[in-house]
Design brief:
Elements (H helix, E strand, L loop, with lengths): L1 H17 L5 E3 L5 E6 L8 E4 L5 E3 L6 E6 L11 E6 L4 H17 L6 H10 L1 H4 L6 E6 L2 E6 L24 E3 L7 H18 L2 E3 L6 E3 L3 E3 L6 E3 H13 L19 H7 L2 H17 L4 E3 L8 E3 L6 E3 L6 E3 L16 H12 L3 H11 L1 H20 E3 L6 E3 L6 E3 L6 E3 L13 H4 L15 H7 L9
Helix pairs in contact: 9-11, 10-11
Amino acid sequence: MADAREERENEMLALASIYDEDVFRRAESDDQGEVHLCLDLPPDFKLVFQGVEQTHAISFLPPFVLKFELPEDYPSSSPPIFTLRSKWLQKTQLSALCKRLDELWEENEGCVVLFTWIQFLKEEALGFLEIQSPLLVVTHGNTQHKSKATGSSTKQEGVTQEDTPDSCLDPRAIVDLDHEHDLAAQLLDFNEEQWQKVFNLKMLNCGICFMEKLGADCLYFKICNHVYCNECMAEYFTIQIRDGNVQCLSCPEPKCTSGATPEQVKKLVGEAEFARYDRLLLQSSLDGMPDVVYCPRTVCRTAVMLEPETKLAICPACKFAFCHVCNRGYHGVSACEAKIEDLLALRDEYLSASPDEKAFMEQRYGKHVIQKIVEESYSREWLKDNCKSCPFCGTNIQKVDGCNKMTCSSCKQYFCWICLNMLPRADPYGHFRNRSSPCFNQLFQGMDVDDAQDEGFWIDEDEI
C-alpha cells in the first residue's frame, strides 16, 4: 500500500512538473485533480455554423476537462475514477472517449495511466472521433453538437444525442451546455482569447520603427497580418484624430485598407483623443445615412431620425418640429419657402444626378416637389437677375425702360431703382437733384441718350 501511495504521489508530481498550472490543477486532496486539455488542431482548421456559408479559421477549441480521483488501490488494481467534460462535443462522442480511456487502462493495468490518457486526449482525440475540417456546428433545440460538413464526424454516423439510448451513454461524459450564451460565439471568443495569449508572447518586428518588440506591446491588423508597435501606432492615431481623419485609422502600409477597431484605438490613445475620435466617427456615420438629419437650431444640432413619407422631423433633444427639406419650422402641406441659393443647389444636384440618384431624391422629397423646385428656382433666378422688390410692399418690379424713378404697380409707392429708397410723393425727383444723395444726377443712369430725350424730361442745370 505504501508503494502504491508513492507511485500516486510520484505521478502527481510528474504531471505538475510537465504541465502549467492552467493545464494541471491538483486539488487540496492529494489524490484528486483535474486536467484542462486543448486539442492540437491541424493547420487551417475551420468551423462552419449551420445556416451560415461563411467559414471561420480557428487554432483553438475549448478544452476537455478531465477530473479524476485516484483510489487507494490505484495503480495496482483499480483505474482512476474520472469524469470528462466538454462544451462542444456531444455526449455520444464523450462516451466514446470514456470507453477508450477504459481500454487504455486495461492495456496498461498495474501502471500509472494519467499521462497516457492526457496524451491520447490531446493528440489523438480528433482522429479517434474522425473530426475533420471544416467542422459543422449544429444546433438542435437546446442540444448542440458537431459533425463534418459532409456528414457525421464520429463513428456513430447519423446518430444524435436524442436518438441514442441512455444505455449507450456513459454517465461520466458531461456536456457543459450554456443556454444563456450562443455556442458559436463561445467558440470564436475562446479562439480569439487563446490566439491573443500566444501572440503576446512572440517577439515581432515593428513595420514602422523596425525595432523588435514583444507581441503584448504591438498592434496586429488581422486582415492584412501587418504588425506595428503600440508606441508608433499611438502617435500615428493621435495625429490622424487631431486632424479629423477618423476614417484614415487604417494600416500604415501603403495601399493597405485594413482598419483599426475602436477597441484598438481606445487602447492606444488618450481619453480626450478617443472622445474626439468617437464623436467624429459617429458624425461621419450619421452623415452617410440618408434617413438622418441634424436639428437646424445652431445651439442644438442633435441627430434626428426621419420618418418615412413625411417632411416632419422632431428633434429628440429640444423638441423643435421642422421640415427636413427646407430646415425651417414645420409648415404642414404648404410648400417650402427656401432661399434662392438653397433652391439652386438642390436643382443643380438633381439635374446632375444619375437616374438612380434622381429616383432616390424623388422618393425622399416627392417627384412633384422636385419638379416644382426646379421650376421655382428658374423663376426666382430670373427674378433675381431682372427684378427688384418694392421697398414698401415687397412686390417684384421689372424695369423695362424709363428713368430710375419707379412706381410700384401694386402699392403705387415711388422709389429709386438704384438705391431702393422710397421717394416722397410731393417731389419724387428731388432725390436725384440733391447733391448729398448717392443718386445725385443719376435719374437717367443706365439709359440710352435717345431714350432719355424721349422721356421729355431733363434736369435744369439752374435748378441743380
